[in-house]
Amino acid sequence: MSNLMDFSGYKAIINYDSEIEMFRGEFTNLNGGADFYATNVEDLRIEGATSLKVFIDMCKADNVEPKKSFSGKFNLRISPRLHEELALAAAVESTSINQWVIDTLSQSVRPAQSL
Known about the structure:
alpha+beta; single chain; elongated; 20% strand; four-stranded antiparallel β-sheet
């Protein structure tokens, strides 16, 4: 099970690594990797803030935007049968496949709870 931490709008996925008996945080949606470790939540917040600051400072020095940008488009490969079923479901609701998928995803995806 994963949890989420928020650092001033930057999100990190938190897992427990039983092999090293530590929590591991990994920032998501960055233009690079930034992770951090600690044995408790309080220290995890401190280490996360430090890791993020180092990452952002490196991005500034390299003139790179820290956060990934999202175009709002992604490719999805599905079976012809599922494609047909999506088209039918959309037609029943008098909408396009694209709008049907947007509506369905919007209902299914919910923000993760932060620690």
